[in-house]
Structure formats: structure tokens, C-alpha cells
Design a protein that fits this description.
By secondary structure, this protein is an alpha+beta fold. Among the domains are: about 80 residues, no CATH class; about 180 residues, no CATH class. The protein contains 14 helices and five strands. Strand 4 and strand 5 form a beta hairpin.
């Protein structure tokens, strides 16, 4: 019984202790819960007290944020507007620079064109303006606007010239007289015509600029020259008007003799002319040689065959000897061998034709070679002339066409004479070859007729 009693007692004591512990724990938890509730209530009261100021602060911050955002948006709009204005300003500056460049190029082109269009006499008078214009245009230290401002002076000079030209203009200058001497005098420009009267001699006339680097005087008849001098000196008088603006006189001065024309063709003109001379002499010789060949008259073959077929060989031989030329020799050889077979007679006559053919056709190939070689020499002269032209372009540029005329003349003149030599040579070769072939064809016809006309029994 004791063990069971002890165990029950132990259980009772443990249950009692556990109840006490639980009671103590419950009491402690209630105290903690009450403290927590009180603390929660205090915290809630504190939150209630702090909530209104915080809400007001949040509202203030939100209002400040909205204001900052509006300020940022305003600044962004200002920045965007400033960027647009800056781009517009840059485009405007770029456009102005392009306009300045365009105007500078226009003024530069106008200045050069103005200098080219002027008569040589006026170029003397305005030499200082043109030199200043060139110096400004080639000065790399000046800005484009400075160049443009300085280049406007050439436009002012051109406008001043227009005012001076109204009613005619007289100015001092120098010109080359027909004797090749520089003489001082006065120029007069009336419309498109330019006149000159020397103050050192009695020379007067039209002033020409074409084909020269200096103005030159072209005298007319004495009466017109006197009228030109009177007009220049007194402002009144009769002066001739050149409706071609000097072109007719310039062309007259540029006319060349045949020798000058040939010399302008350069070194290749000499072989071309050499071929032409030899070919011409050969053609004359061959024409005399070929056209002097005599053919048997009509009926001569019948006069030979009739006695030959009748057995009268001596009479037939005498008639064959009476015929001149290679055809007569061929018929004579045929009569001599008439007693042989027809095949042998044919061979004899063919041999005679073969003997004549080289004599008829000799030197004809040289004429053909001339017809083929002359254009090639002309082409060679064209190539060398163009090479010289490009050399001049390298040195002087393309602004002055007069400096290029020598090379171009050489190129064209050699081609011209190459064709002039080749075309007649080709025609002469064709005519002479046809004539030679005609003689051989007639001899062949006579040979066939002779063989067919023979009826002797061999």
C-alpha cells in the first residue's frame, strides 16, 4: 500500500504546486496585459496628439513639392525655349555665313568676268583696281566678310565706268601701231567700238584686242582715220562703226598663208607632205605608164587567126608583130607556138600575162600605203598636239584659251592634212588598180578568144 500512497501523495503535491504556479503566471500576465493596454492607450493618445501636426507638415511638403515641380517644369520650358532659340540663332548664323560666302563668290566671279570683258585699252586704265582686287581675293589672312567688303570696290569701279561710258569716254593709254611700236595716245569708247589716235604720230584707227596681249591699232582709209582723230581730239567728227565688233578685222589679221598653216601643224606635217609628194609623183608616173599601154584594135584578133588557120604563119606573124603593147607580144608568142598543142599555147600566153602583171602593178602598193599611213600620221600629230595642250593647261590653266590654241591647231591641222593626203591617194590607187586589172582582163579575154579561134590540126 505504501508505494501507491506515496505516488498519490506526490501527485497531490505536484498538482497543488502547479495550480500555484499557474495562478502566479495568470496574475503576472494580467499585470503585463494591463500595462500593455495602458501603454497602448498612451501611445494612441500620443499618436492622436502628433497626427494633426504631421498631417499639416505632409500637406505643407506636398504643396512645396507641387511648387517645386511647377518650378522644374517652368525651368524645363525655359530651357527648351532657349534651346529652340539657340538652334534658330545657329541656323540664322549659318544662313548668314552661306549668304556671305555666296555673295563673296558672286563678287569674285563678277570681278574676273568684268576684267575679261573689258577691252585691253580699259584694262590698262583700271590695272590698279584689278591688282588690288586680286590681292584681296588671294589674301588668306582676311575674313570672308572683310574680303567681301574690300571686293565691293570692284563693283563700285564698274558702276563708275557705266556712268563714264554714257555719251562716250576718252582716256589716255598706249597701243601697238602697225609698225610694231608702242605709242602713247588717246582711246575713245563709243558703244561697242574702240578708237585710238596717237599723240606721237599721225596713226589713228580702230583699236583691236583679239589675238594680242596689248591693244593694237588697225588703220583704215586716210579719210576715216582723220575723222577718228578729229572725234577724239574735239569730241565731234565722223567715225566708222564696225558691226562685227572687231571680229571681222581680227579674222582678217589671223588669216594664214599656206606655209604658215603648214608650220602650225608641227613636225608631223613634214612626213605627211613627204608621203603626199612621193605618192603624187608615183601616181603621175603610173597613170602615164598604165594609160599609155595600147590594146589591139577591134578585129585585130580575127586578122591574125584568119591567115593562121589557113596555114599562112608568116602573114599571121607579121600581123601580130604590127600590134603594139603587151597584148601584141602575147599574140606573137601564141602565133610562134601555134603548131604546138592548145594547152601549150595557153601556157605561153598565160606566161606573157604573168610577165606583164608586175610591171602594171608596181608602185601601186606605195600609193595604198600612203592612203593608209597619212591618217595615222595625222592621228599621231593630233595626239602630240593634245599632249602639248595639256602641258599648257598644267602651266597656264584653262582661263586663257589663246595659250591653248597652238596645241589645238597642231592637233587639228595634222588630222586635216592627213585626210587631205589619204583621200586622193585612195581614189588614185583605186582608179589605177582598176585600169591595170582591166588591161590584164582584156589580155586574158584575147588569150581565151585566140585559143578558142584556133582550128588547126596539130
Amino acid at each position: 500500500m505504501k508505494p501507491f500512497f506515496c505516488a498519490g501523495l506526490f501527485v497531490l503535491i505536484a498538482g497543488s504546486l502547479q495550480g500555484q504556479v499557474l495562478s502566479q503566471l495568470e496574475t503576472s500576465v494580467k499585470k503585463d496585459l494591463d500595462a500593455s493596454v495602458r501603454e497602448l492607450a498612451a501611445i494612441r493618445d500620443s499618436i492622436k496628439e502628433e497626427k494633426i501636426p504631421l498631417a499639416q507638415r505632409v500637406s505643407e511638403l506636398e504643396a512645396e513639392l507641387r511648387q517645386k515641380r511647377r518650378e522644374v517644369e517652368r525651368i524645363q520650358r525655359l530651357r527648351d525655349n532657349a534651346s529652340v532659340d539657340l538652334n534658330r540663332l545657329e541656323d540664322n548664323v549659318k544662313s548668314r555665313r552661306e549668304q556671305i560666302d555666296y555673295m563673296a563668290n558672286l563678287v569674285s566671279e563678277y570681278g574676273r568676268a568684268f576684267e575679261v570683258r573689258l577691252d585691253l585699252s580699259e584694262s590698262q586704265r583700271m590695272k590698279a583696281e584689278f591688282e588690288r582686287f586680286d590681292d584681296i581675293s588671294n589674301n588668306s589672312e582676311l575674313s570672308k566678310s572683310q574680303k567681301l567688303e574690300a571686293q565691293i570696290g570692284i563693283i563700285e569701279a564698274a558702276l563708275k565706268r557705266v556712268d563714264e561710258l554714257v555719251g562716250g569716254m576718252v582716256f589716255d593709254g598706249r597701243a601697238v601701231t602697225p609698225g610694231g611700236v608702242y605709242e602713247d595716245g588717246k582711246f575713245a569708247i563709243i558703244g561697242p567700238s574702240v578708237y585710238f589716235a596717237s599723240s606721237q604720230s599721225e596713226v589713228a584707227g580702230l583699236s583691236l584686242s583679239a589675238g594680242s596681249l596689248e591693244p593694237s591699232v588697225f588703220p583704215l582709209v586716210p579719210e576715216m582715220d582723220a575723222g577718228i582723230r578729229e572725234m577724239i581730239e574735239t569730241g565731234k567728227g565722223l567715225a566708222p562703226i564696225d558691226v562685227t565688233l572687231g571680229n571681222a578685222l581680227a579674222l582678217k589679221r589671223e588669216e594664214q598663208t599656206m606655209v604658215q598653216h603648214i608650220r602650225a601643224g608641227g613636225i608631223w606635217m613634214y612626213p605627211i607632205l613627204g608621203f603626199a609628194l612621193v605618192s603624187l609623183l608615183t601616181a603621175i608616173f603610173k597613170a602615164f605608164e598604165i594609160y599609155s599601154v595600147k590594146m589591139p584594135p577591134h578585129g585585130a584578133l580575127h586578122e591574125i587567126l584568119q591567115p593562121l588557120n589557113a596555114g599562112k604563119d608568116a602573114e599571121a606573124r607579121a600581123r601580130a608583130e604590127a600590134i603594139e603593147g603587151p597584148a601584141g607580144k602575147m599574140l606573137l608568142d601564141a602565133v610562134i607556138h601555134a603548131d604546138e598543142s592548145k594547152e601549150l599555147v595557153e601556157e605561153v600566153m598565160y606566161e606573157s600575162m604573168i610577165e606583164v602583171q608586175p610591171k602594171l602593178e608596181r608602185f601601186l602598193q606605195f600609193i595604198a600605203v600612203t592612203a593608209a599611213t597619212a591618217p595615222l600620221l595625222g592621228l599621231l600629230g593630233t595626239v602630240t598636239g593634245m599632249i602639248n595642250t595639256f602641258k599648257l593647261i598644267t602651266i597656264f590653266g584653262t582661263g586663257d584659251a589663246k595659250s591653248l590654241s597652238s596645241g589645238i591647231s597642231e592637233a587639228l591641222i595634222t588630222t586635216e592634212f592627213g585626210l587631205i593626203v589619204a583621200i586622193p591617194a585612195l581614189i588614185l590607187h583605186a582608179l589605177l588598180s582598176r585600169r591595170a586589172q582591166g588591161i590584164l582582163a582584156n589580155m586574158e579575154r584575147l588569150a581565151v578568144s585566140f585559143v578558142n579561134g584556133m582550128n588547126r590540126k596539130n
